[in-house]
Amino acid sequence: SVPFWDGLFDQEIMKVLKFYQHEKIEFLFEEIKNELGHDLSKSYNDMSEEEKHTFWYGYFEKSFYDKKGKTRRTWVGFNTIIGGYIVISKAPIKEEIKSS
């Protein structure tokens, strides 16, 4: 029951997410909170069922303009993000995820 950025996922996955996606995820979490009232950064155990669904499967009804990144972003959910990580990963967690 830890907030997302405090290590909800395996250490190897968190390392990749923090390095490659931290600013994008942080931006999208804030926009989704403003748009839907879903706080995806809190402890997973404290999330509502709607928040958990958005957390895993994304929010495709709207994209958000990121002024800093000068691009539009859509929250695709961790199911998609982690799926992409599995494809490129060489970490032992890859086999654990694939088998689960």
Structure description:
Helix content is about 55%, strand content about 15%. It has four helices and two strands. The protein has helices at about 10-35, 50-55, 80-90, 95-100, and strands spanning about 60-65, 70-75. The model has no long low-confidence stretch (mean pLDDT about 80). The chain has about 100 residues and is of the alpha+beta class. It comes from Bacillus cereus. This is ABC transporter.
Name a few traits of the molecule.
globular; 100 residues; alpha+beta
Contiguous low-pLDDT stretches (5 residues minimum) are none
Largest sheet: 2 strands, antiparallel
Would you tell me the overall average pLDDT?
A: 82
The SSE string, one letter per element, is HHEEHH
State the helix count: 4
Kindly provide the radius of gyration, computed on alpha-carbon positions and rounded to a whole number of angstroms.
14 Å
Structural category is alpha+beta
Number of strands: 2
- Percentage of residues assigned to helices: 40-55%
General shape: globular
Number of domains: 1
Distance between the termini: 20 Å
Bin the strand percentage: 5-15%
